[in-house]
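User: C-alpha cells in, sequence out, please.
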C-alpha cells in the first residue's frame, strides 16, 4: 500500500482518496465546539474554504455539504 503524506499537509491527499473511493459517503464536519482548544480557536469558515480549494467540482462540493448529510440523517 502506498504511503500518503502525514500531518495537516497530507490531509487533502487523504480526503481526495476517500472522495475517489466513496464520494457518496463523505460529509463535512468539525469537532465544534472545539473542546480541546484553549488558546486559539479554529476558524470553521477557513475549513469550509479549504474544502472549496481541494475539491474543484461544485457538484461534488454540494454532495459533501448537502446531499450526503441529507441521506445520512434522513432529511427530506
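Assistant: Sequence out:
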Amino acid at each position: 500500500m502506498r504511503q500518503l503524506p502525514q500531518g495537516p499537509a497530507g490531509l487533502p491527499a487523504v480526503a481526495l482518496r476517500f472522495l475517489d473511493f466513496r464520494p457518496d459517503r463523505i460529509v463535512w464536519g468539525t469537532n465544534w465546539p472545539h473542546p480541546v482548544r484553549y488558546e486559539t480557536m479554529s476558524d470553521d469558515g477557513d475549513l469550509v474554504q479549504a474544502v472549496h480549494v481541494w475539491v474543484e467540482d461544485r457538484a461534488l462540493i454540494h454532495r459533501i455539504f448537502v446531499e450526503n448529510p441529507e441521506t445520512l440523517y434522513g432529511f427530506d
